[in-house]
């Protein structure tokens, strides 16, 4: 891949070449083999014992996690020197996607390998890594991540759990509680956040069995019933000073950056869940008969399958694009760390953690976009899956019923979608104010351009129209966002409705562009002549046209909120000019896409 470091946030203003993104078509043979191994493990070990897992059999979950550890499935993110595989993020993303078919067990694994283990991988001292990572990679010990409290969900820094240094300076004494902790019922190692002296937000590694550390009863959940979810209680719990993770008062660097990775990994799991749902639903539609014919032969059912497939194609394109970019930043961080370690002064663990945090935060905005889009796509796909199953979709015997229930938590996990929507434009503005993005300069330059006549070009090449329309969507966002900044200034953060509309525009732009870049990259390789390339072109055309309708609606609503009278009419006329382009027959395209899904009975590209 071309060296294009630091693309974070630039997609709203810059054109990005297809070679600057990683796509599923770039998977290596080794990556595909890892996915095949995970798929075989799920089919051979997890699916046969699915009912027991859903009944919340702790011992079985732990047993299966240790078997997964023996295969290396728990150590993908752990460096080789600590017993892991040290895989790149594209590989671990593919692993998360593949394991998604394991339902609740996949959540237990995901919480362990992601938010449970990664804090130590990125921010642990050498001693902490040696002590914990080999066991976490093998499954000998299971990890949990403990941030949420009864009074602080989305407001993580409002945590009430405290830590005070003991008089002899050997340990910190924790008091407080945590809520909704995944893996709590059987975890051995807990990443716990508390405020030292009630003020300095700090991360700690807490081991099961410490005095005063109690685990509450299981929550009775709507879905993900086979995963453990319990509260935790700390009553003068002594935690050795050597178990402070990172620096005192810098716990937010760990918490928020690990959440960024968690959001991204959750999006990857949604890709796997959507693909499974498409396969289950297409197979059912191909066997269920009504009025003397299979329901898959009815155009409206075929159109639903097409919409499900298109949304999943776009989601998949976004996830692997982001994975490739995170890989680049972490490789750069690792190089910087090695250079520091070989210098005369050396590099401290704290420095390494700060560099890792900076690398991850470069794409914090994109991680939030992935999380929001993917969780909402999976909900849409699951909902349509139930609808196509009809009454059978409401019966527990059919897995689509469980997928529907299980998917709902994803919009709450890892920061609610509402919070993530607030973060998307907020993070963009912070990057601009720091001078990391020329956002304001681009906005000012655009204002003069919009006063000039705009001629719609001819579109002769495949996806030339879609590429043009994405550029127009970016201009629309800059125009509306620039107006919002002019009108509200620093008070913009209080205008949550406008921020949400700006976020939704950004999400649609990133989604459109990700699908477009992936398809164009495919065309460069095949000349656009393969059936796979043509299907991808069709899906991209449909998605861009429908996404542009959404962008226009979001922009119009924002303008009506901010302007009135003649000023509003001027802005709406500019918007209309930016939205001009020929339309495609999406009904015909969806018929073609739907027919391919029906024939194959699984997700297609």
Automatic annotation (TrEMBL):
<feature type="domain" description="Acyl-CoA dehydrogenase-like C-terminal">
    <location>
        <begin position="472"/>
        <end position="577"/>
    </location>
</feature>
<feature type="domain" description="Acyl-CoA oxidase/dehydrogenase middle">
    <location>
        <begin position="144"/>
        <end position="236"/>
    </location>
</feature>
<dbReference type="InterPro" id="IPR009100">
    <property type="entry name" value="AcylCoA_DH/oxidase_NM_dom_sf"/>
</dbReference>
<dbReference type="Pfam" id="PF02770">
    <property type="entry name" value="Acyl-CoA_dh_M"/>
</dbReference>
<dbReference type="InterPro" id="IPR006091">
    <property type="entry name" value="Acyl-CoA_Oxase/DH_mid-dom"/>
</dbReference>
<dbReference type="InterPro" id="IPR049426">
    <property type="entry name" value="Acyl-CoA-dh-like_C"/>
</dbReference>
<feature type="domain" description="Acyl-CoA dehydrogenase/oxidase C-terminal">
    <location>
        <begin position="249"/>
        <end position="424"/>
    </location>
</feature>
<keyword id="KW-0274">FAD</keyword>
<dbReference type="InterPro" id="IPR046373">
    <property type="entry name" value="Acyl-CoA_Oxase/DH_mid-dom_sf"/>
</dbReference>
<dbReference type="InterPro" id="IPR013786">
    <property type="entry name" value="AcylCoA_DH/ox_N"/>
</dbReference>
<dbReference type="Pfam" id="PF02771">
    <property type="entry name" value="Acyl-CoA_dh_N"/>
</dbReference>
<comment type="similarity">
    <text>Belongs to the acyl-CoA dehydrogenase family.</text>
</comment>
<keyword id="KW-0285">Flavoprotein</keyword>
<dbReference type="InterPro" id="IPR006089">
    <property type="entry name" value="Acyl-CoA_DH_CS"/>
</dbReference>
<dbReference type="InterPro" id="IPR036250">
    <property type="entry name" value="AcylCo_DH-like_C"/>
</dbReference>
<feature type="domain" description="Acyl-CoA dehydrogenase/oxidase N-terminal">
    <location>
        <begin position="28"/>
        <end position="139"/>
    </location>
</feature>
<dbReference type="Pfam" id="PF00441">
    <property type="entry name" value="Acyl-CoA_dh_1"/>
</dbReference>
<dbReference type="InterPro" id="IPR009075">
    <property type="entry name" value="AcylCo_DH/oxidase_C"/>
</dbReference>
<keyword id="KW-0560">Oxidoreductase</keyword>
<dbReference type="InterPro" id="IPR037069">
    <property type="entry name" value="AcylCoA_DH/ox_N_sf"/>
</dbReference>
<dbReference type="Pfam" id="PF21263">
    <property type="entry name" value="Acyl-CoA-dh_C"/>
</dbReference>
<protein>
    <submittedName>
        <fullName>Acyl-CoA dehydrogenase family protein</fullName>
    </submittedName>
</protein>
